[in-house]
Amino acid sequence: MGVTVHEFRVLAALSKAGALAGNVMTLGRQNTFFKSRDALSISHAYGLNLSPETCDALEAERFADRLFQELGAKRFNSIDASSYEGASIIKDLNVDFGKGDVESADFVYDGGTTEHVFDVSAVFRNLTRIVKPRGFFFGACPANGQPGHGFYQFSPEFYYRTLAFHGFEVERLYLVAIQFPAQWYRVDDPSKFKQRITFLSAEPIYAFVVARRTGEPSKDTAPMQSDYAFGNWKTGKDHLTWDRSFRAKLYRLLHRVVVLRLLWSLNVLARHAFLVGNAVWATSPGVCRVDIDADLQALVGEIRKL
Q1: Is the pLDDT of residue 82 over 60?
Q2: Is 201 helix (H, G, I), strand (E, B) or coil?
Q3: Which of 20-29, 162-171, 236-245, 290-299 has the lowest mean pLDDT?
Q4: Fewer CB near the last or first residue (10 Å), C or N of the chain?
Q5: What is the DSSP letter of 154?
Q6: How far apart are CA 237 and CA 228, in angstroms?
Q7: Cβ contacts of residue 7 below 8 Å, gap of 6+?
Q8: Residue 249 has what pLDDT?
């Protein structure tokens, strides 16, 4: 759990936008994993004016408490199930918080905690009890290529549906290839395309999500995956698995021969030809490589207009 140079870049943009100017809380007490020179460069790029001496001190700190204070936090807390790293609030994120159990926050940061919590749905229920209306949540967790890292890896679909279900609106979602040089890919909401957003990766990928609380949690029992929500899957009328007609059987046969045999082989060849130089290759609409500084500057402008 921590703040690398990649999370620092997003935090700097959110600080410039004023999102950290209030009560800030981290899920888990976060460590610092960035170099002073990188902090200084990012600080200047986003107009934060951190001094070289301050950046040196931030690199030397084991924990990121001071970093969040330098980025604008008027009050800072960290929450953890154990006191072994000195978190200021000892609460198990697997357990639903009661009203008033934890002080509310204007900004909550998850730098790699949620994937280690077994009851991940409880984490997001607790977010609705922590994040104030119009407050922000920034999460940075594994998305692909790290199946042994924690309990889970999180898809864009998961973040979009889960956060919306709990009263949040996603402002940005990125896939981040963290090996040098870092590559950033912006991901749109799958519901816009009414199909699944998929991608292949050539290295471990993180999902970075910035969301703002705009409403209250849904009263439904659970969120539904968007491509199912738009279909008639409960009736079985639009899925050929349930259609036993000759036409449906012929379609399934052609699918096996053409898609699973021919097109899959062509797909493998295309990956070798075109994936060179890219850590992520989109296999559906909705994933686009971006200039992260330009996109974050655009995000700063959008947040300031809210």
Answers
A1: yes
A2: strand
A3: 236-245
A4: C
A5: -
A6: 13
A7: 111, 138, 140, 208
A8: 79
